[in-house]
Amino acid sequence: MTKFYLTTAIDYANGAPHIGHAYEKIQTDVLARHFRQRYDDVYFLSGTDEHGIKIQKTAAAQGITPQELCDINTAKFEECWKGLDISYNQFIRTTNKDHEAIVQKIFKKLQDNCDIYKHSYTGLYCSGCESFLNPRDLTEDGLCPDHLKKPEEVKEENYFFKLSKYKDRIIEHIKKNPDFIQPEFRANEVINQLEHIEDISVSRSKDSVSWGIPVLGDDSQIIYVWIDALSNYITALGYDPENPSEKFNRYWPADVQVIGKDILKFHAIYWPAFLMALDLPLPKTIFAHGWITIDQTKMSKSIGNVIAPKDVLDSFCLEQADAFRYFMMVTAPAGRDGNYSDLDFKERINADLANNIGNLLNRTLNMQVKYFDGEIKPEFITSSDNEIAKAALETVNLVKSRFDKFEVAEAAQEIVNFANTVNKYVNDTAPWSLAKEEKMDECAKVLYTVLESMRFIGALLAPYCPNIAQDIYEQLNRSEKAVDVKLDSLKWGEIPAGKITEKSKIKPVFLRVDSEIAGASKKG
Ligand code: MSP
Q1: Is 317 a catalytic residue?
Q2: Which of 35, 103, 413, 458 is the most exposed place for a label (fewest CB within 10 A)?
Q3: For the whole model, what pTM was predicted?
C-alpha cells in the first residue's frame, strides 16, 4: 500500500479565514484528491494554531478568554473549509490536550539531549510573526518587513535551542535533496538565511505571554509558538518521544508539507533542526506557495480589502465552491504570487468551465439525442489509436507528472489544453454537417470520441471541481464517482453501448456566472 501524508500550515485562530488561507487549503486539498486517485492511503492534516501573544491580546481586547476566542474562530475556519469541500482526514487544534502534553515531552527530550539551554537575552519580537527578528532583516525604518510594524524590544531570560549546531547538516540535506524545498528557486533563499543562523529562543516568560504551553518543571516559562505549532504535524499522528504510535510510524515522514512563502524559514530551517534533534526523518518536500493579493494589493485589515471565500461565492450567487476552487488554483504558477479580482474570476471561470468544458459536453449530448436518440451502438465505440484518444491518455500522464512536482495550476492547464484540442476536433469534424450529409457512422464516432474525452476530463478535473466533475459523470450516465476514479486504470473506450442519455436529462454542468439564468437558477 502506498501511503501519502500531506499537511497545511495551521492558521492562527485570532481572526476569521480569508481567501489567502483558503488558497493554501484548496491547494493541499487538490493535491490530496489527486493523489487519492493514484495511491491507496492518503492522509491529509490541517488545523489551527491557537497559542501566542497575538491571540492573548485579541481575546483581551474583546473581553473574552483566549480559549473562547479560539473556539469561536476555529469554528469559523472549520465551517469555511466545509463550504469549500476541503477533504482533510484530521483537523488539529493546538489547544488539544494530547497535543499540549506531547509538546511538553518533546521540549523535555530536547532539554535532556542538551539541545536547549537557558540564556538571558534582549531581542526584537514581532507579534505578527510570533518570532524574534534579526536587526539585519528589518526595513530601513526598523519595521518587520512582512507586517510593517515596529517589533517590541524584549529583555528576558528564555530557553534557547541550539539551532546553530544543525546548520551544516541542514545545508547538506538541502543540497543533497533537491526535492526537499519546492519550488527549487526557494532553496537558495533558505541557504542564504542559514549562513547567518543563530540559536533561537524557544520560550517566553509567563509574565509577558501567559497563553501557551508551560515548560514541564518550570512554570515561569511558556513554550513559544514555533515548537508548539510545528510539532502539530507529528502530535496529530500520535507521536510520543517514548512510544510513537502505529499511525505515526505509518505516515511519518510527510510526503509534502504545504505552507506560505512567509513561513518557509520556520519549516525549512527550524523544523528540520527540531526533527534532527528528535532523531526523526525529515519531510520529503516542503512546498512554499506564493501569496494572494486583491486587485494587486496586499490584503490587510487596515486597507479594508480582506475578502472571505464566502464573499466571492455570495457575490456570484454560487452555491458550490467549485468555481472558486478552480480560479484560486489557476491564478498563479507553482510557488508564485497570484491575484484575485472579480473581473478575472468571472472571465476565467466562464472561459474554462462554462464555455470550454461545460459547452463541449452539453452540445455533444444534445447531438447524441438529436441524431441518435441518445443511443450508442457497439460499432461506434472508437479504438484508442485515434489522435484524440492518444491525446487523452497523454494528458493523464502530463497531469500526473505536473502533480508530482506539485504544479497544480500547470496541471489544470494541461486539462484545459486537452479540452481545447477536443473542441477544435469537434469544430473541424463538424458532426452537425456530417449528420446533414447523412454520414451517420462518422458522426456517431465523432460524438463517441468527445464523450469519452469528457469522461477523462471529468476524472482529471475532479480534484479541482468535485461537484462539476460529478455532474459530468452523471450526465455521462456513469455509476462510479468521478473523485474515485483511479487514474492508472483510465482506459479508452469504456463508455458502453446503449442509451447514454435523453433530452430531459441534459443540463449544463456549469452556467456562465454573469448570465441572468445563472443568477436566477442559483438563487431559486
Ligand atoms: N500559525 C502560523 C503557521 C504555523 S504552521 C506550523 C501562521 N498562521 S497564519 O494564519 O498567519 O497563516 C497560515 C497560512 O496562510 C500560512 O501558510 C500563510 O502563508 C498563509 N497565508 C496567509 N495569508 C496569505 C495570503 N494572502 N495568500 C496566500 N497565503 C497566505 O503563519
Answers
A1: no
A2: 413
A3: 0.95
